[in-house]
């Protein structure tokens, strides 16, 4: 542990002792530039949902490269004449907040109950499992309200499988949920529901139909669904929903296919199935939509695409051009992986064309083997910055929910039968019965703890902020206001945030830091 990290941890510890509010991070430094927070069977850092401060005051929560994790300070707006001269120094970057200019309503935050995530969580002792689940779903954790579930196997399974691998079984007589569902995911979802106090908004996504339904007779590689299997594949969805209903779990949503472009990539190496937008349009209109409705699942939110944003707005335009398909579609799901190269204005264009459809970011991870860092990099601050940057940009372009990928992975970034290892917000070390909260976890916390379901994005503008300082703002159902700022620069900046009738807030944004500002 570095000297700066030790001082940051001691500062957090002293704050928690005297405030009697949150348990601080216990930091551990691996070989990377920041720290993870260590949790075990008896201890884990917490953050109760903060109450809005009295009028004229604000709360500021800061995490940074040096080791602060949601460190709380409080201050006063300038109408009370408490702003220091240094805080209003010349050259401060000014933001203007307009709570009366409202945009989209936030649907929430979450992550995926993959087979791998469930396996890793259940590899821990019962008390440590509880600590991990509370870190995501408890009142002193991230308070996730959304969960994604894979329909059949995905790459983050320890084996390739589907629910009916019996050749030619078009009636799905041999369809059955697997141990991955019954012994792993379903029990964890029930525990998460109990902790959250309300059923999660669960949505499910398929990676591949059984091999015998596909043109290439394989669950990987270049291939798509045979046209004669369109109806059996729609029936497969109903079988899945019925199966989970038998365990007292219902789904809020479905995506029509995970990453449909993958199945049209020659040699693609994990579970996939190709669709064009035109093929998806036909299947939704003629098979999936009517089948869900006839089976009593007509209220499920059906999302199209579930792939990279570069497919927009064209994918949505194609599917929605058929009224028989459009009447079944509720939303569009996008993934994070090409966001650094594709303009987010595509999201705004899509929202402008189809304001009746919600947009969610349905999958995100870091560490896909790209140099200079390996798949798993405990404590790497850059990955927090990438998450936070993506969330801010997405929210500023009409995205309503942001869903992480695996809830927890092991220290290799798996298990993954295809060896497609990646990083995760929480890493599990079953050998020591502990888990590590990566910086990415705190990127999420800076939103989930301050911007609940039902919050509305509001207008926040600036004329002089550099590209390394990005921000977004929200109005919560209780009337409180939240501003989130990310500083990717190596230098600090003085910032002021003004809102007519509320006065100005001034504070310093330190280098390589993220801040959540809460006020009334």
TrEMBL record:
Gene Ontology terms for molecular function: glucosylceramidase activity; hexosyltransferase activity; signaling receptor binding
Enzyme class: hydrolase
Residue ranges constituting the Glycosyl hydrolase family 30 TIM-barrel domain according to the UniProt record: 106-451
Cellular component, GO, one term: vacuolar membrane
Domain Glycosyl hydrolase family 30 beta sandwich: from-to ranges: 454-517
InterPro entries documented for this protein: GH (IPR017853), GH30_C (IPR033452), Glyco_hydro_30 (IPR001139), Glyco_hydro_30_TIM-barrel (IPR033453), Glyco_hydro_b (IPR013780)
Entry keyword set: Glycosidase, Hydrolase, Lipid metabolism, Signal, Sphingolipid metabolism
EC number assigned by the record: 3.2.1.45
Pfam family, one: Glyco_hydro_30C
Reaction catalysis annotation: a beta-D-glucosylceramide + H2O = an N-acyl-sphingoid base + D-glucose; an N-acyl-1-beta-D-glucosyl-15-methylhexadecasphing-4-enine + H2O = an N-acyl-15-methylhexadecasphing-4-enine + D-glucose; a beta-D-glucosyl-(1<->1')-N-acylsphing-4-enine + H2O = an N-acylsphing-4-enine + D-glucose
GO biological process: alcohol metabolic process; autophagy; glucosylceramide catabolic process; lysosome organization; negative regulation of macromolecule metabolic process; protein catabolic process; regulation of macroautophagy; regulation of membrane potential
Signal peptide: 1-19
Pathway: Sphingolipid metabolism; Lipid metabolism; sphingolipid metabolism
Family: Belongs to the glycosyl hydrolase 30 family.
Protein name, UniProt field: Glucosylceramidase
Species name: Meganyctiphanes norvegica
């Amino acid at each position: 542990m570095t000297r700066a990290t030790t001082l940051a941890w001691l500062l957090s510890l002293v704050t928690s002792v005297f405030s009697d509010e949150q348990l601080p991070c216990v930091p551990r430094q691996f070989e990377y530039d920041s720290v993870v927070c260590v949790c075990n069977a008896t201890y884990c850092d917490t953050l109760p949902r903060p109450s809005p401060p009295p009028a004229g005051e604000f709360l500021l929560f800061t995490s940074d490269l040096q080791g602060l994790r949601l460190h709380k300070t409080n201050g006063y707006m300038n109408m009370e004449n408490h702003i220091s001269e240094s805080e209003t120094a010349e050259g401060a970057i000014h933001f203007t907040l307009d709570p009366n200019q409202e945009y989209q309503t936030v649907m929430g935050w979450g992550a995926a109950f993959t087979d791998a995530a469930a396996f890793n969580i259940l590899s821990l002792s019962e008390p440590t499992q509880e600590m991990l689940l509370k870190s995501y779903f408890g009142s002193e954790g991230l308070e996730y309200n959304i969960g994604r579930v894979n329909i059949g196997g995905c790459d983050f399974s320890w084996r390739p499988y589907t629910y009916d691998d019996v050749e030619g079984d078009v009636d799905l007589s041999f369809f059955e949920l697997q141990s991955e569902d019954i012994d792993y995911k379903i029990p964890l979802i029930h525990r998460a529901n109990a902790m959250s106090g309300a059923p999660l908004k669960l949505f499910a996504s398929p990676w591949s139909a059984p091999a015998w339904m596909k043109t290439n007779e394989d669950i990987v590689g270049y291939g798509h669904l045979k046209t004669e299997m369109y109806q059996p594949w729609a029936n497969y969805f109903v079988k899945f929903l019925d199966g989970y209903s038998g365990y007292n779990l219902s789904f809020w949503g479905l995506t029509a296919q995970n990453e449909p472009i993958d199945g049209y990539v020659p040699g693609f190496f994990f579970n996939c199935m190709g669709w064009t937008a035109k093929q998806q349009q036909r299947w939704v209109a003629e098979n999936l939509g009517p089948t869900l409705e006839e089976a009593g699942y007509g209220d499920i939110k059906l999302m199209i695409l579930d792939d990279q944003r570069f497919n927009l707005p064209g994918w949505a335009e194609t599917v929605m051009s058929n009224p028989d398909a459009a009447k079944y579609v509720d939303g569009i799901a996008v993934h994070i992986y090409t966001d650094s190269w594709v303009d987010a204005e595509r999201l705004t264009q899509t929202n402008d064309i189809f304001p009746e459809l919600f947009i969610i970011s349905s999958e995100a991870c870091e560490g896909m083997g790209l140099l200079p860092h390996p798949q798993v990099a405990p404590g790497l601050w850059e990955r927090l910055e990438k998450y936070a940057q993506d969330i801010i940009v997405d929210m500023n372009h009409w995205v309503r929910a942001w869903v992480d990928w695996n809830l927890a992975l092991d220290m290799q970034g798996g298990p993954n039968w295809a060896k497609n290892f990646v990083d995760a917000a929480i890493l599990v070390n079953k050998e020591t019965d502990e888990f590590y909260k990566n910086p990415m976890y705190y990127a999420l916390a800076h939103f989930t703890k301050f911007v609940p379901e039902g919050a509305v994005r509001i207008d926040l503008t600036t004329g002089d902020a550099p590209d390394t300082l990005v921000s977004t703002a929200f109005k919560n159902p209780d009337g409180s206001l939240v501003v989130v700022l990310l500083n990717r620069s190596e230098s600090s900046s003085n910032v002021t945030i003004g809102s007519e009738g509320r006065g100005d807030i001034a504070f310093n944004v330190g280098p390589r830091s993220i801040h959540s500002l809460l006020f009334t």
